[in-house]
Design brief:
With 429 residues, the protein is of the alpha+beta class. It has a single domain, classed as Glycosyltransferase, CATH 1.50.10. The protein has twelve helices and 13 strands. It has helices spanning 18-32, 62-76, 84-99, 125-142, 145-162, 206-222, 226-243, 267-283, 290-306, 339-355, 363-377, 409-426, and strands spanning 60-61, 110-111, 123-124, 173-174, 204-205, 244-245, 249-250, 253-254, 260-261, 265-266, 318-319, 325-327, 330-334. The strands form five sheets. Strands 10-11-13-12 form a four-stranded antiparallel sheet. Helix 2 (62-76) packs parallel to helix 12 and helix 8 packs across helix 10. The two termini are 27 Å apart.
Length: 429
Amino acid sequence: MPGTKSGSNYENNVLPSPEIFEHALKRDLSAWFPRCIDQEFGGFLCDFNYKWKPSGPQLKLLEFQARTTRLGAQVASHPGFESYRAIAAHGFRYLREVAWDAQYGGWFHLLDRHGQPLEEGTKYVHGTSYALGACAVYYELTSDPEALDLAKKAFSWLEAVAHDRTHGGYFSAYQRDGTRITSSEQSPTRPAIRDYMGTPFGLKDTNTNGDMLEALVYLDRVCPDVTVKERLKEMFYLVRDRIMVAPGIAHMYFQSDWTPVPDVAQYAESLRKANILASSAVALGLSGDPQTARVVKSVVDHLLRFAWDASNGGFFFAGSAFGPAWVGETWIFAKKKFWWAQAEGLEALLTMARLYPDDEMDYSKRFTSLWSYICKNMIDWRRGGWYQVGRDRFELRARPKASIWKDASHETHAMLECMRMLKTAHDGC
C-alpha cells in the first residue's frame, strides 16, 4: 500500500477512501486467522509473541473468546469476508458448549485451555456483556435459534443475579452460584482489593456498565422484548447522565447509588463510552437529541485538548481530568498510547467529522492525523497485526501481538465503522 507507512497520502487533510481501511483490515485479520483458532479444544488461542509464535498457557478468558466470536460475525456480514462466518460459528460453539455454566447459568470468567473453569468458577458482568453481544450478533448473521436462545438465557441470568433493581445498572463480580462478591474475602484471588479488571470490590464501574449498554443495543436489534428495551433505556441514561460528566470525561467507579468515587481519569475509557453512547442513541431513535450530542462532543473535544499528543498524534491513556498533574513532586500521567485507544479514537473522530464538518476542532484533520499515526506507529507492516503500544513513545516491538487481553476486536470494529462511514460519504448519502 504505497505511502501508507509514512501517512503522506493524508497530509493535505484528505480523508482516505474506504478501500484503504478494507485493505488494512484484511491484512490485520490475516495475521490472526486461522492461527488463533484452537482446533483441538475449541475457542481461540490468545498467546502469541511479537513474531506470532505461540507463547503462553493459552487460557480462555471470556472477553477474548466472546470478542473474537463477535468479530467474526460482524466481519462476515460484509462482502468479501464471508469466510469469517465459520470463525463466528466456531466461537459460538465454545460459548454455548464449554464456557456456559449448565448448572448455575452464566458464563465462566476464565477457563484453562482444556475447558476447566479456573478461579472457582467466578463470573463477571464485563465478560458476560461481550458474550451476550456475540450471541446476538451471531444470531443476526445466521438466524441460528440456539444463538438467540443463549442470548435470552444470559439476559435472564443478568436480571436474576446482577441487575441492581434499586439504583439501576450492574455490579461486576459473582461467585459461581450467583452470590455477589463484595470484598476480597469472598474473592478467589484474595487478598486483592480489586477484581481482575481493577475495580475495587463492592463498587460499580464504568467499564462494565458502559459495555453492557453496547451489548443491550445488539440484543435489542434481535429480541424486541419489553424488559430488554427498558434495560437499554436505563443504561443509556446512566451512561449519559451519571457516568459522563462535564467538561467531558467519564467517572470510573461508583457506590451502589451512583455516587462517584474519585480516581484517575482513563481517557481511553471516555472515548469508548462516547462511541457507545453515540451508537446507542441511534438505536433508541435519539440520534438528533441535542443533549446526547452535547455530551458526546464534549468528550471528544475535551480529550483532543488534554489527551491528544500535539507533536506526534495519538491519544494518551490516562491522567487527571485536565491532563498531566503535578502531585507530591510526581507527574501523574500515563503517556502510553495503547492500540485500542487509537482504534476508539478513529471511530470517534470520523463520527465528529461527519456531524460537524465545519467545526473549529477540525475533526477531519485530527482523523487523518490519527490514521497516519497508526500507520506509522501502531501497525506492524512486516509481521502483521497492531503493536500493543505506539512505537513513538516506547520501543516495545517485542511485546506480544496477542495476549489474554489483546484481541483484534477494537481495531476490527473501528475499521469496519470507518469503511461504513467513508463509503456513505463517498456515495453522497
